[in-house]
Amino acid sequence: MFTAPLLTFHRSSREQPTALQHPIPPPVRTKRANAVSGAPRVPFEVFGWSFNIPDDLVKWANDHDFEPGMDNHYRQQLAKSEILHRLPFGYRAEAYVHDDACPGLNRAKRYCFVITTNNSQEEIDRAFDMTIINQFRAVLGPDAKLQWHRFRYCSSK
Fold first, then answer.
1. pLDDT (tens digit, 9 = 90+) per residue, 83-135?
2. Number of domains in the chain
3. Is 146 within 8 Å of 103 (Cβ atoms)?
4. pTM
5. Assigned domain for 64 exists
6. Nearest 5°: phi and psi at 121?
7. What percent of the chain has pLDDT over 70?
8. Can you give the three-state secondary structure of the chain, one letter per residue?
9. From CA 24, how far away is CA 22, in angstroms rounded?
10. Which of 35, 70, 112, 152 has the fewest CB atoms within 10 Å, i.e. the most exposed one?
11. Cα separations (Å) of 133 from 47, 129, 130?
12. In angstroms, rounded to a whole number, what is the distance separating the alpha carbons of residues 42 and 27?
């Protein structure tokens, strides 16, 4: 996976604060149509908030006083559904992503609420849309770390 340090971007053409710490986006994904012979393949990546099940969902439920008397297993399921319901319409995609902190070929998977992908330059540019990012942070919390993740598989659309 492409890993990059956080940099400060100044983009006057987009609605955002004057300085924003934002991870460097990956290049556009390699598909058969845009593949160049001999060039390294660019994997499919998604930009969003990834989390551990159950830890981060229970933490979100506790932070939002969501279903406090319920068993943690059911709270996790209801919290996930509630988060999806609160996210902006059109941005309710979910995916499983690779956890690059885990070594080995079959890295552990994490769950991710997806904002956009590296399928095209237009989609990569959505990662800088502060309106959507602020809507995600309003639901997930101001400390939600949005970043690029290597796609594993999709759980729903």
1. 999 999 989 998 888 876 665 556 667 889 999 999 889 999 999 999 999 99
2. 1
3. no
4. 0.73
5. yes
6. -65, -35
7. 73
8. CCCCCEEEECCCCCCCCCCEEEECCCCCCCCHHHCCCCCCCCCCEEEEEEECCCHHHHHHHHHCCCCCCCCHHHHHHHHHHHHHHHCCCCCCEEEEEECCCCCCCCCCEEEEEEEEECCCHHHHHHHHCHHHHHHHHHHHCCCCCEEEEEEEEEEEC
9. 6
10. 35
11. 11, 6, 5
12. 7
Structural domain that includes position 95: 6-30+41-156
Confidence of residue 138 (pLDDT cuts 50, 70, 90): very high
- Mean pLDDT, residues 138-150: 88
Residue 139 lies in a domain: yes
Residue 131 lies in a domain: yes
Which residues are CB-neighbours of 41 under 8 A, at least 6 positions away? 30, 35
- Tokens of residue 98, six digits: 């690779």
- 68, 69, 70, 71 alpha-carbon torsion, rounded to 10°: 100
Domain membership of residue 1 (yes or no) is no
